[in-house]
């Protein structure tokens, strides 16, 4: 597929929705139709033997209702510039943002002010995202043969989303001049790249690039953040749940560490088990601490790339991890690999 960029539409104000999130406090704006996007080539679904996959899919045409799913066709694009005013509580992007997956796990990103990362719990080892949310926008919130989305992000960063910790809270992306998203797929990896221009928090405005990469095997995804200037408080985190304690550990040489949680912290049921972790390089981190909604990893001010890894292990995954002991053993194996090789890939 050729690269497609949707121009910024000054007259468009979209309202983005998620049944898993409280309504945004800000007032909704009037919606005007969005011009139809013409694909230069017909999108082709990934090969049956594809090992990784990333996608970005938007509503085709201008006859959709932002307040409820009205049917219609989605079209996959390689890149997208968000229309001006785009926010939560709209049905413009299929499952609310880009998604990326391999045979064991999938992730999705809320491409709006929330900028949280959600988890696709997969029961099958095949590529599933091209078929998710096509017939009924809300289906992926419920159990199906392939799995479902399993994390309630709420006001948090989900698993590995990012923001700026300032004045005892995390600033998300409510004030951004322009956002461009793109996806790419190759034989051995898939990636989502987000470019933010004019991200304002407090009295500071910067540009930021974020890239999410996934590889053919294992449950982790690599994330790199590239800020245009040094700022205090750039951070990532894991959503907090009552009665699910935080786990922290560092490698023997102290160069890598992780924060993690394991327990009943999914939308599936009160017994369903999920493990989540973030691996980070200690030289890039100022501190870890508790935020209002997240266990936070706060990075040192820098203009260099910051790299961390997220990992989700769902007990219903095919041949998945089903106990806390097994989860911690898996984390320790990866911590050793990071100590030895400096990367997971």
From TrEMBL:
Domain of life, source organism: Bacteria
Name of this chain's protein: Uncharacterized protein
């Amino acid at each position: 597929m050729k690269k497609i960029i949707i121009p910024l539409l000054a007259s468009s104000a979209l309202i983005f929705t998620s049944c898993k999130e409280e309504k945004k406090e800000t007032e909704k704006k009037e919606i005007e139709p969005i011009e139809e996007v013409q694909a230069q080539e017909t999108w082709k679904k990934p090969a049956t033997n594809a090992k990784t996959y990333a996608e970005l899919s938007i509503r085709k045409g201008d006859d959709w209702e932002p307040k409820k799913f009205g049917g219609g066709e989605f079209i996959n694009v390689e890149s997208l510039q968000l229309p001006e005013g785009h926010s939560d509580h709209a049905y413009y992007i299929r499952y609310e943002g880009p998604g990326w997956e391999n045979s064991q796990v999938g992730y999705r990103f809320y491409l709006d002010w929330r900028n949280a990362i959600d988890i696709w719990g997969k029961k099958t080892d095949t590529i599933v995202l091209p078929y998710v949310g096509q017939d009924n926008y809300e289906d992926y919130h419920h159990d199906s043969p392939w799995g479902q989305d399993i994390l309630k992000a709420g006001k948090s960063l989900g698993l590995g989303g990012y923001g700026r910790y300032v004045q005892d809270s995390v600033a998300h992306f409510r004030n951004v001049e322009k956002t461009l998203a793109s996806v790419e797929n190759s034989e051995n990896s898939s990636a989502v790249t987000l470019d933010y221009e004019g991200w304002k928090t407090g009295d500071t405005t910067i540009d930021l690039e974020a890239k999410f990469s996934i590889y053919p095997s294992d449950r982790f995804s690599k994330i790199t953040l590239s800020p245009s200037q040094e700022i205090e408080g750039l951070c990532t985190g894991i959503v907090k749940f009552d009665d699910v304690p935080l786990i922290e550990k560092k490698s023997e040489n102290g160069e890598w560490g992780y924060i993690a949680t394991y327990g009943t912290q999914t939308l599936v049921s009160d017994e369903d088990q999920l493990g989540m972790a973030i691996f980070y390089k200690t030289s890039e981190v100022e501190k870890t601490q508790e935020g209002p909604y997240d266990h936070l990893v706060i990075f040192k001010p820098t203009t260099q790339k910051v790299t961390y890894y997220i990992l989700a292990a769902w007990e219903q995954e095919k041949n998945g991890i089903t106990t806390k002991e097994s989860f911690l053993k898996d984390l320790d194996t990866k911590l050793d690999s990071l100590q030895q090789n400096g990367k997971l890939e």
